[in-house]
Design brief:
Distance between the termini: 29 Å
Number of helices: 11
Helix content: 40-55%
Strand content: 15-25%
Largest sheet: 6 strands, antiparallel, barrel
Strand order of the largest sheet: 2-16-19-18-17-20
C-alpha cells in the first residue's frame, strides 16, 4: 500500500470540499473562497483511510508435492467452487511411472540377494557348529590321552595308574625276573661244576649251563638298559607328545572359533547390507508410488478456486496454467474460505500507533460502490514490512488486517477496496483543516480574517487526523481562517513558553510506542509527537510505566538507546526483536499499546505534539 500523503499535498485537493462541507459561501468572505475556511462546531470523526485488498480470513494453499519440474496437464477452472476431495490439478507423471517400473525390478533383485545372503548365513552357522564340535572333541581326546598316559587321582585318595607308570613297573619287573633267572642259572652252573669235578656230568652239559648263565646275565643287563631307555627317553617323549597334542587341540579349537566368528560376521554383514539395499530400494519405490499419487491433487477443504502466483512488483509473476512447468513446493491453488473476509492494508509508521486491535472500521469495495461493510481491526504488525523497502527505503509500513463483520458471498479475494479505520468520534467540537495550522517556535497559530486584515492567532490544539484538527482554545464558531498564509503577511513572533512541553516525560514515554516525534512537515508547520501533547496528554499510563521498568531491567543498553531517541522503541529492530521474543515483555507491550488506544481522544495535533504522527487523514462525521 502507498504511504499517506503529507498534509500540504493531500489537503490542497480537498480544501474546496471542506469549505463546502462546513457551509461557507462566497458572500461570507472578502478573500477567495478557496483560501478561506469558516470555523464551525459540529461532529467530527477522526479516522485513517488506506487502500486495501480483500482476502479470505482463512485459506488453504495447495502446493505441488512432486519432486523436480513437472508439467500441468489438467487444471480446474479458476472461480469454481469445489468440495473436499474434488480434483484440482493433475501433473504429468509418465516419467515417474517409468522410474517406478524400473525400481520394482530393483526391489525384486534386492529381495533375491537378501534371501541368498540369509541362506548363506544359515549354512555358515551350521558349518561353524560342526567345526566347533570337531575341534572340541579333538581337544577332549587329547586331554584323555594325556590323562591315560600320566594317570589320574580318584576319589578316596587313590590314584589310577597311567601308561607311564605301568611301563616303568613292567621294566622293573623284567629286571627282577631276569635277575632271578640269572641266579637260578648261576646256582645250576655251580652245581654242574661240582658234578663235573666228580665226573658226574659231561663237559658239554657243563658248557651248556655256563652258556645259559651267560645268557641270563645278558638278559639282566638288557632289562636294566631297557628301563634306563624307557625312563630317560621313551616316557619323556610320550609326555611331550601328549602335552603337545592337548596344546594343539586347544589352539585348533580357538582357531575354529575365531574363523567361525569371522565368517559368521561376514555373512551377517552381507545380510545386513542386503537388507539395507532392499530397504533403500523399497523406500525409493514407495517414494515413486507417492509421487504418482501426488500427480493428482485433490481439494483438502471446500472453497473457491483461486490460481496462486509468486513474485512481487519487481519480478515476473509465475502464473499456473495448463502446459506450464511447476516445481516442488510451488503454490498452485488457493482455496479461500470466502464466508469470512478481511481487508489487508499497510499503515504508515506515522499513524500505526493510533491503530489498535478491535477498533471499528468501514470497508468500501470498488466492485460494490454503493455498499459499506462494517468491520473491525483484526491484527496490527509489530514490525515494519521489509518487503516494501525496495519501493521506498525510507517508508516504514506496517501490515494491518481488518475483518469484515458478517458473511457476504458476493465478495471475492483480491478485490480492490478502501478501508477507513475509525480512531475516535466527537459529537460537538470546533475543528479546522490541518493545512491551516501554522507554527512559530512552540506556538501553533492560524491566520484569521479580521477588519484589520489577516491576524495571527495562537491556538490550543486537540486530536487530529489527516484532514482536520480539533481546536481546544483560540477560535470561536464563525471565525474565518486562511487555509494558506495570506500574501504579504509578516510571520508573527509569539512569546515562547518557558516550558513548551510541560509534560515532556510523558511525551517521551508515549513516543517510545507511538511513532516519530515532532518534525517539520515541509510546509513550515510541525507534525505531532506522541499522542499526549494536548491538555489531556499529561495523564499517566500505569501499563507504560510497568513496561518501561521491566524493559530497562532486562535490557539496560536498549533502554538507554530508547531514551536517547524515543522513536527507537518503536522502529529499532533490535528493540522490537527483544520485545517479541520475551513473552513477559510482549504482554506488557500489548497492554501499554491497548492503554494508548483507549486514550487517543486526548490532546495533541499538528501544532502541539498531537497523538503520534501529525499527519491528516479524517473527515467530519456523517452522523
Amino acid at each position: 500500500m502507498n504511504a499517506p500523503l503529507p498534509p500540504y499535498r493531500l489537503l490542497l485537493s480537498v480544501a474546496a470540499l471542506a469549505l463546502a462541507g462546513c457551509g461557507s459561501d462566497a458572500s461570507e468572505a472578502s478573500a477567495s473562497a478557496a483560501d478561506i475556511f469558516v470555523v464551525k462546531r459540529g461532529p467530527l470523526r477522526i479516522s485513517l483511510k488506506e487502500n486495501a485488498e480483500l482476502a479470505a480470513s482463512e485459506e488453504t494453499r495447495v502446493r505441488s508435492q512432486m519432486e523436480g519440474q513437472n508439467t500441468v496437464i489438467f487444471l480446474v477452472k479458476e472461480g469454481s467452487r469445489v468440495e473436499k476431495g474434488d480434483k484440482l490439478v493433475e501433473l504429468d507423471a509418465s516419467q515417474v511411472i517409468e522410474k517406478r517400473a524400473n525400481q520394482e525390478i530393483s526391489v525384486a533383485r534386492a529381495r533375491a540377494a537378501l534371501v541368498s545372503a540369509q541362506k548363506a548365513l544359515d549354512i555358515q552357522e551350521k558349518q561353524n557348529q560342526a567345526e566347533l564340535l570337531g575341534a572340541t572333541n579333538d581337544l577332549r581326546i587329547a586331554e584323555m590321552n594325556q590323562e591315560k598316559f600320566v594317570g589320574r587321582d580318584l576319589d578316596g585318595g587313590t590314584r589310577q595308574m597311567g601308561e607311564a607308570e605301568q611301563l616303568r613297573r613292567d621294566a622293573e619287573d623284567n629286571i627282577k625276573l631276569a635277575q632271578q633267572e640269572l641266579k637260578l642259572a648261576e646256582d645250576r652252573l655251580t652245581w654242574s661244576e661240582r658234578l663235573k669235578a666228580k665226573d658226574f656230568i659231561t663237559k658239554n652239559e657243563l658248557e651248556r649251563d655256563q652258556l645259559d648263565a651267560d645268557r641270563k646275565r645278558y638278559q639282566v643287563q638288557r632289562a636294566t638298559n631297557q628301563k634306563s631307555l624307557l625312563q630317560d627317553y621313551d616316557l619323556a617323549i610320550r609326555q611331550i607328545e601328549v602335552e603337545q597334542k592337548v596344546i594343539e587341540a586347544k589352539l585348533a579349537l580357538e582357531r575354529v572359533v575365531a574363523q567361525g566368528d569371522a565368517k559368521l560376521a561376514q555373512a551377517t554383514a552381507e545380510v545386513e547390507s542386503r537388507e539395507a539395499e532392499l530397504k533403500l530400494a523399497q523406500e525409493r519405490l514407495d517414494n515413486l508410488e507417492q509421487q504418482v499419487k501426488n500427480a493428482v491433487i485433490t481439494a483438502p477443504t471446500p472453497g473457491l478456486v483461486v490460481y496462486a502466483f509468486e513474485g512481487d512488483g519487481m519480478r515476473r509473476r509465475e502464473v499456473v496454467e495448463e502446459g506450464s512447468s511447476v516445481r516442488e513446493r510451488q503454490s498452485l491453488i488457493v482455496l479461500p474460505n470466502i464466508t469470512r473476509m478481511v481487508a489487508n492494508l499497510s499503515v504508515h509508521e506515522a499513524m500505526v500507533d493510533r491503530v489498535a486491535v478491535g477498533q471499528p472500521a468501514l470497508v468500501r469495495v470498488d466492485a460494490f460502490p454503493d455498499r459499506i461493510f462494517p468491520a473491525r481491526v483484526r491484527t496490527v504488525s509489530s514490525l515494519a514490512d521489509s518487503s516494501q523497502r525496495s519501493f521506498n527505503p525510507t517508508a516504514k509500513l506496517y501490515k494491518t488486517s481488518v475483518e469484515l463483520l458478517g458473511e457476504d458471498h458476493d465478495l471475492k479475494p483480491n478485490m480492490a477496496a478502501s478501508c477507513e479505520i475509525i480512531i475516535s468520534e466527537h459529537k460537538d467540537v470546533l475543528f479546522v483543516p490541518v493545512q491551516a495550522v501554522q507554527r512559530q517556535g512552540a506556538v501553533s497559530f492560524v491566520w484569521v480574517e479580521s477588519r484589520q486584515g489577516p491576524t495571527a492567532k495562537p491556538l490550543e490544539l486537540g486530536v487530529h487526523d489527516y484532514s482536520y484538527v480539533i481546536i481546544e482554545n483560540g477560535l470561536t464558531e464563525g471565525d474565518r481562517i486562511y487555509l494558506v498564509a495570506p500574501a504579504g503577511a509578516k510571520a508573527p513572533e509569539f512569546p515562547q513558553p518557558k516550558d513548551p512541553l510541560p509534560n515532556r516525560a510523558v511525551l517521551s514515554e508515549a513516543a517510545s510506542q507511538s511513532g516519530p516525534p515532532t518534525a517539520d512537515d515541509g510546509n513550515g508547520r510541525r507534525r505531532g509527537g506522541d499522542g499526549n501533547g494536548g491538555r489531556r496528554g499529561g495523564r499517566s499510563n500505569p501499563a507504560m510505566t510497568e513496561f518501561r521498568t521491566a524493559f530497562k531491567a532486562k535490557y539496560p543498553d536498549l533502554a538507554a538507546k530508547a531514551e536517547e531517541d524515543p522513536r527507537a522503541m518503536f522502529t529499532d529492530e533490535d528493540i522490537q526483536r527483544a520485545i517479541q521474543e520475551d513473552a513477559d515483555l510482549k504482554a506488557k507491550w500489548d497492554a501499554m499499546r491497548a492503554g494508548f488506544g483507549r486514550r487517543r481522544g486526548g490532546g495533541g495535533g499538528p501544532g502541539g505534539g498531537g497523538n503520534g504522527n501529525g499527519s491528516p487523514g479524517g473527515q467530519p462525521s456523517d452522523k
